Amino acid sequence: MAVLGSDSRRWSGLLLIFVFLCSFITPVVTVKHENFKKCDQSGFCKRNRAYADAALSTSSWQAPYSLDPASIKFDNGMLTGSVVKTIVNTAETVRLPLTIAFYESGTARVTLDEERRQKGDIVLRHDSKAKKQRYNEAEKWAIVGGTTLSQGAATSKGAEKGTTNISYGPAGTFEAVIRHSPFGIDFKRNGETQIQFNNRGLLNVEHWRPKVEKPVEEKKEGEEAVVGESAKDTEEDEGTWWDESFGGSTDSKPKGPEAVALDISFPNYQHVFGVAEHAGPLSLKETRGGDGKYSEPYRLYNSDVFEYEMDSPMTLYGAIPFMQAQKKDSTVGVFWLNAAETWIDITKSSSSTNPLSLGIGSKITTNTHWISESGLLDVFIFLGPKPQDVVGAYTELTGYTQLPQQFAIAYHQCRWNYVTDEDVRDVDRKFDKNRIPYDVIWLDIEYTEGKKYFTWDPDTFANPLGMEKQLDEHERKLVAIIDPHIKNEGNYPVVDELKSKDLAVHNKDGNIYEGWCWPGSSHWVDCFNPAAHTWWKSLFRYDKFKGTAKNTWIWNDMNEPSVFNGPETTMPKDNLHHGGWEHRDVHNINGMTFQNATYHAILARDKEEDKANVRPFVLTRSFYSGSQRLGAMWTGDNQAAWPHLEASIPMLLSMGISGFPFAGADVGGFFGNPSKELLTRWYQAGAFYPFFRGHAHIDTRRREPYLAGEPYTQIITQALRLRYSLLPAWYTAFHEAHTNGAPILRPNYYVHPGDEKGFAIDDQFYVGSTGLLAKPVTTEGADGVDIYLADKEKYFDYFDYWMYEGPTTVSLAASLDTIPLLMQGGHIIPRRDRPRRSSGLMRYDPFTLVVVIGNSGDAEGTLYLDDGESFDYEEGAFIHRRFEYKSATSTLMSEDLAAASASPSRKTKDYLKAMEKVRVEKVIVVGAPESWKSKKEVEVSEELAGKSSGTKSAELEWHGKEEGKAAWAVVRDPGIQIGAGWKISFA
Ligand SMILES: *[C@@H]1O[C@H](CO)[C@@H](O)[C@H](O)[C@H]1NC(C)=O
Ligand SMILES: *[C@@H]1O[C@H](CO)[C@@H](O)[C@H](O)[C@H]1NC(C)=O
After folding, report:
1. Where's the DUF5110 domain (predicted)?
2. b or e along 322-348 (b: 16 or more beta carbons within 10 Å of the residue's beta carbon)?
3. Which residue, judged by its Cα, is nearest atom 11 of ligand 2?
4. Of 2, 120, 287, 886, which has the maximum CB count within 10 A?
């Protein structure tokens, strides 16, 4: 490499100016719309929108579905019956078996299937190998609990003719009023209707039917021969029933039309949230056009959307068909369990109770219309009333988020690509040299030999074990990418086995499917096949995936799946998976099964080979309801542009309320080069992403934090240190999510469900239950932000204890080196303030407790702590404390939240023993009472193993009120253990 001469220095100066201009004018590139379907290019979506338009345009619309009263049975918390569909313009009917299950949790579930008719009754394409049945296995992958039938659910006696009423839920306060004809259900809480099914009559189950070959109409000059078009008014548009083309590929539809659709209304609910993943506001927009509204429905069809656009209902990489509706003091929700392509239309209507009110006091009702291409109609209903009741019930069904290893919630350094093992070692050394903490370094696809997973490029990564060993010296980890496409090339044992064991996805003819991805021609492992899991496990063994060590973890990308030459950059829908299911039926679950296979492979690697009991770490791009059980997700290929930084906050909030809080966005932006200001602001925001990773595209300049130069590097390092010092609070929030599904980033509506003014706020959030309220700066050149405080409570600036009081909106200065962060009164926040190179090195560091005294004078908080890596916590090896400050007695105490066991396991004893030396080194009381002013000491008593160790005193340091700021006090080294019971008296 040539050293730069004076000439080239001048050039580099010019280059800098050029770069500056470029970063200034870098346009936000936008998605190729033509590569992705709009509703009217997706036959079943177009048909169902047309159906809705027809139904809603006439007041005499009669929905052609009724529940046969003679078929109704109710037993043991479950109603069964038969819904009869009358086929328009014929006398024919189709029977749709109905079940309505009432679970102990208070969740109800409505399922409509289609009666399997006799062989020969339906005519499928003779050559089709697809299973001739509606897909009914989404539940098998997504649901893991919460389905115990309620013994308390009961039909009300003497129900009027025409309805069947079931009371259920807590103390029987929920009710399902099932209307027989037309079939529909109103869900009530305390007598008030919260959710309505089919009240607009849009229920539509496209029944199976034989394919009738119609004579091709004589094509007249200048006319297009479109099948079905001629009988437009009376008949359905049949043009896409039996095959459908888009972007040059044709989808054969061996089962014909089989969509399911339903209108779900939320009367008097103004806001709906959820149906992740979309790049748009948290509060979902209306979708049928008009000012500030979308004209396309929200779409869920997991896709690799290159250069995705902002503020859009377009589909992205993952799908969580769970929606919550919010009105004052009430949250309800629905979960649409279907893995096929799904579209959701949202409209709002307002009704004024008083015509003279000029809109004041008018009620908004949110109407939704759900449309899926195939499968069952299967919907879960949650009646709240609190946000956590809904999220908790949803996650009881789909599983709680994995409790990650501690390193996984620290900082990750990624780039496409670190090009050699020496490059990795060099980056590692430079972080240390610059005293910047990080835990994990990542390898994108280039580490492999020719994009063959489970291999290393022998020229560039000759010594992966040596590299991993260096990382391990500071307890750092490596994450390597493994994707689901397997290179189709000779002399590659992985593809040979995939083929010989027949574990790949098949095409519609039943042969191995071949498509293009990073390696060129590839095959895709079919993780719906249990045998594929067994095989996949074998590949990760240390002796099989040579060059990996115990600190190697995995990244699963491209698992939508992304297929470069496939329709909409994915697999053809008529591909076949294990069991004969079409890809169309399982598409949105595909990514989850792949991440799951990897999760179990890593588990087996360490358990079976090593007897180690460690928690796997697997990052996924594609996901579905339930993926939260398996690891983290990120929002895919974003751009180094301010709107993408801004959008990351509502996107992550949406993931959090959808039961999948372990989420992040690429810090810095994947495509393009961020300005230093943008990079810095992005790190400050990223310090509040549950999953915190810097990543960059192969065509971008290097941007490791130490390259930013001053003052940027210093400011970025501060943001990283803030994250590391708050790791105990983050880990406690993850533990909470792991036990009850609570979001980690909490939007205003979740924390203050009675405050209507805050429902749409999605640019600020609380962190877990800590009372930390953050509002990252996401605009260029900003020197301040406004933060909305919803409650009548004191809030304190995290850094200088400046005091604010809600309810109001406050302005905070936020120069480039400042992260707007407040502490809500009434909380106790655990921290570890000693700067270390990695989180692993903090294991035995002492704690700081920040007691934030608000209007009540009291404060409380929790701390969850374990070894941060193994499953030993499941056997009791953890510390779980509750801290409480009571103003009445002026005491701060620590009590045990772990149910004390008479005979603790050996692991528990070992863990607690190891933690015995871990102290509380500092207690900071913010908003300390003036009466402590002249106090010099506090009294400390500790209880160890049930025995009081007597009392001792510790010094109290007083800091009086300054203009605008709160008084605060510090107790230094009170001589207490974090894991013990203790009391500090300030009286
Ligand atoms: C069933 O619910 C409907 C609607 O609330 C009500 O009109 C009807 O009286 C109820 N029937 C019984 C028997 O509770
Ligand atoms: C995950 O894998 C396990 C073990 O192979 C299997 O039992 C389970 O059904 C799988 N779940 C998902 C979501 O793929």
Report:
1. 848-892
2. bbbbbbeebbbbbbbbbbbbbbbbbbb
3. 141
4. 287
Ligand 1: distance of its center to the CA of 114 in Å?
Answer: 29
Residues with CB under 6 A from ligand 1: 156, 158-160, 163, 165, 177
Indicate which residues carry an active-site annotation: 557, 560, 637
3-state class of 269 per DSSP? coil
Domains and CATH numbers, the chain: 65-207+258-352+367-398 (2.60.40.1760), 412-481+532-564+585-731 (3.20.20.80), 846-987 (2.60.40.1180)
* pLDDT tens digits along 534-572: 999 999 999 999 999 999 999 999 999 999 999 999 999
- Using alpha carbons only, how large is the chain's radius of gyration in Å? 30
Residue 376 has pLDDT above 50, yes or no: yes
Ligand 1 geometric centre to CA of 157 (Å):
10
Distance 590 CA to ligand 2 centre (A): 12
Give the SS3 label for residue 426. Answer: helix
Best mutation site among 157, 163, 166, 186 for ligand 1, i.e. most ligand atoms within 8 A of its Cβ? 163
Question: Which ligand has its closest atom nearest to the C-alpha of 180?
Answer: 1
SS3 at position 391: helix
**Model pTM?**
0.94
The closest residue, in CA terms, to atom 9 on ligand 2 is 141
What's the length of the chain?
Answer: 987
CA torsion through residues 276, 282, 288, 289, sign:
negative
Res 339 pLDDT > 70: yes
The pLDDT tens digits for 884-921 are 999 999 999 999 998 777 788 999 999 999 999 999 99
Where in 91-159 does DSSP place strands (E)? 93-102, 108-112, 154-155
How far are the Cα atoms of 225, 240, 671, 798 from residue 220, in angstroms, in the given order? Answer: 8, 22, 51, 75
Beta pairing class for 745-746 and 765-767: antiparallel
Rounded (5°) CA angle 209-211-217: 130
Spatial separation of the C-alpha atoms in residues 947 and 981, rounded to whole Å: 10
Ligand 1 center–CA 180 separation, angstroms: 13
Percentage of residues of the chain with pLDDT beyond 70 = 92
330 close to 194: Cβ distance less than 8 angstroms: yes
Whole-angstrom Cα distance, residue 113 to residue 983?
60
Q: Is 600 in the pocket of ligand 2 (CB under 6 A)?
A: yes
Ligand 2 site, residue 593, Cβ cutoff 6 A: yes
Token output for 563: 């297929």
- Which of 397, 596, 630 most suits a substitution to test ligand 2, by most atoms within 8 Å of the C-beta? 596
530 CA: nearest ligand 2 atom = 5
Tens of pLDDT, residue by residue over 86-127, are: 998 787 899 999 999 999 999 999 999 998 765 444 545 446
Q: How far apart are CA 327 and CA 385, in angstroms?
A: 10
Q: Could you tell me the two tokens for 6?
A: 């004076």
Residue nearest atom 8 in ligand 2 by C-alpha distance: 141
Residue 268 has which token pair?
């008097």
Contacts by residues 584-587 (CB-CB < 8 Å, ≥ 24 positions apart): 584/251, 584/340, 584/341, 584/373, 584/374, 585/135, 585/339, 585/340, 585/374, 585/375, 586/135, 586/137, 586/138, 586/339, 586/340, 586/528, 587/301, 587/302, 587/339, 587/340, 587/341
Measured distance CA(623)–CA(401) in Å, rounded: 13
Tell me how crowded residue 559 is: count the other CB atoms within 10 A of its CB: 26
CB 939 within 8 A of CB 948: no
Output the residue whose Cα is nearest ligand 2's atom 1. Answer: 596
User: Pseudo-torsion of CA 401, 405, 407, 413, nearest 10°?
Assistant: -50
Q: Are 702 and 677 in contact (CB under 8 A)?
A: no
